[in-house]
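Q: what sequence does this backbone want?
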């Protein structure tokens, strides 16, 4: 039984490695720390900032030019950008089977549909975790290169936990995106769903209930909603976990029970 799951995963991994999407997602995710590092650099060098004119003013949006501010911004990038990019990964993994018309070939295989779905989610999780690690690695390299002050190993450890914690939450929250990709049979519906969750996150967060809306919670956890909202209650974590379980079971049920014609 495990051999079937491993074989399905190896097929998914091969599809990812041979596609351009892997490199495009890496490029999309590392642009953020590079841009953030550039803003920190011009803020750290006032003379360069003044010569940069308007760009110097924008650099002030990055806050203080030190490691605590830099790690905080990286965490916010992963928590907010991860909703979009991880959602895109899930939409591509599941939606392409319908747009490329390969779903019927998958369903004809003598393999449990549950294992096919599990293998896709394992591939998505590894892909998204890899992207998060790349952001941390590139962020560290950029921060060291521009000589940011305020480094400590404790700060780095805490920041890595926040960044990977935000990424883990976003990985759980993409299971409904996969379900929408299957139900909508393509890319458009799940990406519309992702955009809708971001829009609702802003509204629900603004009225004070963001800690109870699944797609707002990673931003709260990272501190993007302000330090006063960074301490989440246990119910928020359960909301994320339950949302992930519902999305996973919904996707499996769709593959097992829905009409796949």
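A:
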């Amino acid at each position: 039984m495990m051999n079937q799951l491993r074989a399905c995963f190896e097929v998914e991994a091969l599809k990812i490695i041979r596609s351009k999407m892997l490199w495009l997602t890496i490029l999309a995710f590392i642009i953020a720390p590079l841009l953030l590092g550039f803003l920190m650099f011009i803020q750290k060098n006032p003379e360069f900032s003044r010569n940069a004119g308007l760009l110097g003013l924008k650099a002030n949006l990055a806050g203080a030019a030190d490691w605590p501010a830099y790690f905080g911004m990286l965490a916010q990038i992963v928590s907010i950008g991860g909703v979009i990019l991880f959602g895109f990964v899930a939409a591509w993994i599941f939606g392409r089977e319908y747009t490329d018309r390969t779903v019927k070939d998958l369903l004809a295989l003598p393999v449990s549909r549950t294992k096919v779905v599990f293998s896709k989610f394992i591939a998505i999780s590894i892909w998204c975790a890899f992207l998060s690690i790349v952001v941390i690695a590139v962020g560290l390299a950029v921060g060291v290169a521009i000589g940011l002050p305020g480094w400590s190993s404790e700060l780095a450890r805490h920041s890595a936990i926040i960044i990977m914690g935000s990424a883990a939450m976003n990985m759980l929250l993409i299971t409904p995106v996969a379900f929408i990709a299957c139900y909508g049979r393509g890319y458009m519906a799940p990406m519309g769903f992702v955009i809708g969750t971001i829009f609702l996150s802003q509204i629900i967060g603004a009225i004070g209930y963001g800690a109870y809306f699944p797609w707002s919670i990673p931003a709260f956890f990272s501190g993007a909603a302000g330090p006063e909202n960074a301490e989440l209650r246990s119910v928020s974590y359960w909301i994320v976990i339950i949302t992930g379980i519902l999305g996973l079971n919904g996707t499996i049920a769709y593959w097992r029970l829905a009409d796949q014609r």
